[in-house]
Amino acid sequence: MALTGIQIYKHLPKTNCKECGFPTCLAFAMKLSQKQVELEKCPYVSDDAKALLVEESAPPIRKVVIGTGEKLLEVGEETVLFRHEKTFVHPPGITLLVEDTLGTDELQKRVKQAQAASFERVGQQLCLGLIMVQNISKDKDKFVQTIDVTQQNTDLPLVLASSDAAIMEAALEKTAGLKPLIYAATEDNYEAMAALAKKHACPLAVCHSGGLDKLTELADKVVGQGVNDLVLDPGIHSLGTTVAYLTQIRRAALKKSAKGLGFPVMVFAGPQGVDAQQEVLRAGVYIMKYAAVIVLRSAENWQLLPLFTLKQNIYTDPQQPLQVEENVYKIGEPDENSPILITTNFSLTYFIVAGEIENSKMPAWLVIADVEGMSVLTAWAADKFNADKIAKVVNTCGIKEQARNRNLILPGAVAVLYGEVAELLPEWKVMVGPREASNLPKFMKEQSV
Amino acid sequence: MPFAIPKETYNGKINSVTVGKDANTVSLGGISTYPFLGFEGQSQASIPIALEVWNSAPLDWPLALNELYGDVYADPVKWALTCQDKYKADMIALRLASTHPDQGDTSPEDAAQVVKQVLEAIEVPLIILGANHIEKDAEVLKACAEAASGYNCLIGKAQEKNYKTIAAAAMAYGHYVLALSNLDINLAKQLNILLTQMGVKEERIVMDTMSSSLGYGLEYSYSVMERVRMAALKQNDTMVQMPIISDVGIEAWKAKESKVDEAAWGDTHARGILWEATTAVGLLMSGSDALIMRHPEALKQVRKTVADLTSVEG
Q1: In this complex, do A313 and B271 lie within 8 Å of one another by their Cβ atoms?
Q2: Among partner residues A84, A241, A358, which is closest to B312 by beta-carbon distance?
Q3: Nearest Cβ partner for B310 among A240, A285, A442
Q4: Which fold has domain A5-57?
Q5: Does domain A64-315 have CATH number 3.40.50.2300?
Q6: What ipTM was estimated for this complex?
Q7: CA atoms of B35 and B33, how far apart (whole Å)
Q8: What is the pLDDT of residues A303-350, one digit of tens each?
């Protein structure tokens, strides 16, 4: 939790010496709490106070970076239990597991498919976050070779999984500089794994399935070895138990009551015996309930689309609604005589209106005006969706070139704008549509007769 | 130092509502924790799921559903029995779709007749739903409440503009009121207050705080339900302690992702079922106590997930 100005002030010298550039220690403390100034500006703050403030202001859940380059995955830094309290920050990395016992052809096929699985939704590109290569064979060469083939077919960051430190060492040499996640330090091998993580500057997963007591203890030991970028794995349990663990870890981390739990958490959605549908539903639960890395055994597109969509929904900032780009959108296959409707760029408004046009089974053009993601009524009240804006969008969006007809349907909620819009767009026949999108199919059918 | 399990302390409880007749009842709610956190109190033991039946053949249902129900569309009784016997629904949700002025405008008497026939045929509890038309629903549900007298049905949805008629009919004939509000905790609370001021008992109200499909506003429904549960369980606000039912199928099968053939999205059939199931699980994780669904395979998948969520190792 971030400290308040008053809490910080208690630890400052309270001499109001002004050397920090602020008139009083309290003013300085306020700026500190807003992170607009560095503590270093105060020459007199005691070392104890400094250590305490650094500790206190550290994020409750450490940020961990897996991989490098464009597709690196950042997890951690979460600050709330419920998304409406602020927002969830880093969407989890959905991860495909491949084993080093797969034949090369099958491996290539799966990795290529994972690499290609990508969907555009409301301006965001949704795709897998990681690929996990698991050493089942216990054979060093086979593992390294599998990693090699995987790397040739994807630029997604990797998770390397082997319980054998010597095999892991060979794999890390193969992936030097790419910062894969090492999976995993256990009770038996944590010293060797921690040494590897340190040497190769890689994040390290810590796994203990014997409960959170044991997991915290092990994480503390690994931190004691000098490795700080950890990802916790509470092991494979029933969905109910895993949700309890995920909830307890998040709560403990936010309250800072257990130091060894202030890290992102990874879970396996598809242990043996879980079918393809259940794997997705479990993964969905883990998206909602705080997991940062979610490992799947199967990743077909029909599974990934719902999962990625859920991830996008849950991780949307409640204060910043998703927005659709200002443009002309085709609903169905409209031609130059198809009806033309206009609405705002709040993603839900767009989806609902587009959905109802689809329900009408009549192809149409939908013009979207950028009003900073507000719904029609809100944007109208804020004077963002006004006659000037509507006229400007209609004139510049390209609809005039794409359609020959000049009939424009306004949302019923802004019927009051009718006169002004008609005046600003003299060559158009402006019509007022229904107030509720659900009445659009009926309205459009009536218009077409 | 052993790890101290951080437990939430709750000050309130969700009402337990039991609908249905004689030995064939189903209970909703009755829990005292956030969803599925059995380690700190009474959480869900199971989730009752209704399958949706219409009083007229739906014109806009996708292939995946037409394949299953096409043969029984013409006969709501057969349709309801199929859902009860073949697909093991816990309840039947009968939507009187054709009463909508734009969808046939059939009469309240017709609707009441269908309600009567379905009730005589099925054993599981019945949810009676209007066609989401303020004025017409009031007329239709009034007639249906009378026809269903003695069956302890859940009827609705009562909204701010028509709750009086519906609530009065529910009270007169011993039913439970399903109260619909529009994605806002204050509106949900206000409607419950209005209903109780009319004399409806708190434990005879079930809420629908507005369900949305995955990809089409799910996050709004999700956060409203989380906030409702906080108010109910932490602040002990008795006016939001009613169980929540989510109308999943009608929303999920509107989404094009659930029904459109698109090579890049993978198998349409499997995707559609998963779209409905994922929507359902999303709503359950944020506070829903019961569901209205359409596809029996989606129902089955959700039941499996719930069973897994409620199984906690010692």
Answers
A1: no
A2: A241
A3: A240
A4: 3-methyladenine DNA Glycosylase II; Chain A, domain 3 (1.10.15)
A5: no
A6: 0.97
A7: 6
A8: 999 999 999 999 999 988 788 899 999 998 999 999 999 999 998 899
Other CB atoms within a 10 A radius of the CB of residue A146 amount to 26
d(CA A369, CA B52): 38
- Residue A204's DSSP bridge partners are A182, A230
Q: Domains plus CATH for chain B? A: 16-306 (3.20.20.20)
Helix, strand, coil percent content, chain B, rounded in steps of 5: 45, 15, 35
CATH number for the domain formed by residue range(s) A327-448 = 3.40.50.11600
- Picking from B39, B274, B285, the nearest residue to A280 by CB comes out as B274
Contact status, residue A139 vs residue A116, Cβ threshold 8 Å = no
Mutation choice for A interface testing from B37, B133, B212, B274 by most A CBs within 10 A: B274
| Distance between CA atoms of residues B271 and A290, nearest Å | 25
Residue ranges per domain, chain A? 5-57, 64-315, 327-448
Contact status of A35 with chain B (Cβ, < 8 Å): no
Q: Do A83 and B215 touch (CB under 8 A)?
A: no
Verify whether the Cβ–Cβ distance A314 to B222 is below 8 Å: yes
Nearest to A332 by CA among A302, A363, A301: A363
Report residue A200 as tokens.
């190769």
B271 at A interface, C-beta within 8 A: yes
Give the containing element (helix H, strand E) for A66. strand A64-66
B304 at A interface, C-beta within 8 A = yes
Give the tens place of pLDDT for each residue, A378-435: 999 999 999 999 999 999 999 999 999 999 999 999 999 999 999 999 999 999 999 9
Tell me which chain A residues have a C-beta less than 8 angstroms from the C-beta of B217. 348, 351
Is A216 in Cβ contact with B36 (below 8 Å)? no
Question: What distances in angstroms separate CA A285 from CA B133, B257, B259, one per listed residue?
Answer: 35, 20, 23
Instruction: Quote the minimal CA–CA distance from A396 to chain B in Å.
Output: 28
Query: Checking DSSP bridges between strand A327-331 and strand A364-369, what pairing results, if any?
Result: antiparallel
